[in-house]
Amino acid sequence: MTDVRSDDRPTESLRDRIATELGRARDRSVRLTEAVDDDDLVRQHSPIMSPLVWDLAHIGNQEELWLLRDVGGRTPVRQDIDELYDAFKHPRKDRPALPLLGPTEARRYVGTVRDKVFDLLDGVRFEGRRLVTDGFAFGMIAQHEQQHDETMLATHQLRAGPPVLSAPPPPPSVRPVGAEVLVPAGRFTMGTSTDPWALDNERPGHPVDLPAYVIDAAPVTNAAYLAFVDDGGYADPRWWSGPGWQHRSSAGLTAPMHWRRDGTGWGCTRFGRYAPLVPDEPVVHVGYHEAEAYAAWAGKRLPTEAEWEKAARWDPVSGRSRRYPWGDEDPTPEHANLGQRHLAPAPVGAYPAGASPLGVHQLIGDVWEWTASPFLGYPGFAAFPYREYSEVFFGSDYRVLRGGSFGTDPVACRGTFRNWDLPIRRQIFSGFRCARDARPDETA
Ligand code: AVJ
Ligand code: FE
């Protein structure tokens, strides 16, 4: 296979595709880091986030480790800094005190690494080792940079001060979307064994049999979530799990992160701009505990990861699992709100072309969706190429999120893609939709 994209761009070679993806990722990293001055780059905007300059040099260091040293067998550019940019050696809160590369040095470092990667890319053969088959390591590094770009975008959202990022508003709603969709009982293929740039935790493809269930046709909106807030949902332990209630109480949660009550209603601050809540926009910046409490209040539950993926990929006509809700073609701006093209989720009904055959909307893009599932390996999981990407996080401490947000690049988003985080986290662009078991009268 020489072309990762399928039929839409048959003439673009794998080499060109890799160069394009690496270039797009770097353009975004540059945009996110040039938006602020040097003081701001080295400052820690939140104890749970790294300074932006750490993300930047870490991006370059991972690229050096995997592409230059491992794939290319080249001599190290800066072996002395590996330890500083190893995410497992230093917790985020300690990173500002490390002797990190300064902004100028970090920019020079990532540029040097990238020049050498392009030199390597010129002559590399995509065969032999599994690491290079179908350009996997290059795809992994493009995804890694984009993942850190989304993390840097989340850091921008936590940053105080006047706005420094801008983008056109998301498209308006153009179609009313129903409340719920019934997904019939039966087997589907979860995960993938064939998608060349799928990461280890998405593999292997395996059959999963699910009873009939009902899933929300769209993510939960600000208006719906506000009804929970107004109903005293944050003050009523009935809706919360034990650990959820404990966290709500100790953290003093009363609303999603960044919400603020003004004279007449609620608004939220987004990348330094305050605006009234948009009622039909998906709620964002809620943790797993909040999502779970809302679902209980609504008489529903969160979908499992398998339920989310079947709704997103299962084609009732062919019985196949597809890459995306709309089919196998790569996302376009008509399908989904991805790639930081906008700086907000789009209202429900803004992406009818991205809906699944069963009529489930906005599964991809807008907001990451919390699922009920702990982060575990699929049957037959094998860590590749390193345990620290996924395997060391397996267990019930983390919950899986699906679908990507407005800040997720298409290269790091697909129907099989799995994200995970701690249940208390809400600085990420996280929302959710609800599900429930089907009633016997609904499946007859
Ligand atoms: C998949 C988003 C949870 O940011 O911790 C970046 C991605 N892994 N560098 C993270 C990742 C290594 C990861 N998430
Ligand atoms: Fe990383």
From TrEMBL:
Residues 22-152 form the DinB-like domain. Keywords: Iron, Metal-binding, Monooxygenase, Oxidoreductase. Residues 179-436 form the Sulfatase-modifying factor enzyme-like domain. Pathway: Amino-acid biosynthesis; ergothioneine biosynthesis. Its EC number is 1.14.99.50. Fe cation binds at H58, H144, H148. The keyword Chaperone does not apply. Its cofactor is Fe(2+). It comes from the Bacteria. It is an enzyme of class 1 (oxidoreductase). Pfam families: DinB_2, FGE-sulfatase. It catalyses: gamma-L-glutamyl-L-cysteine + hercynine + O2 = gamma-L-glutamyl-hercynylcysteine S-oxide + H2O. Gamma-L-glutamyl-L-cysteine binds at R92, K93, D94, R95, D421, R425. Belongs to the EgtB family. Catalyzes the oxidative sulfurization of hercynine (N-alpha,N-alpha,N-alpha-trimethyl-L-histidine) into hercynyl-gamma-L-glutamyl-L-cysteine sulfoxide, a step in the biosynthesis pathway of ergothioneine. This is Hercynine oxygenase. It comes from Plantactinospora endophytica.
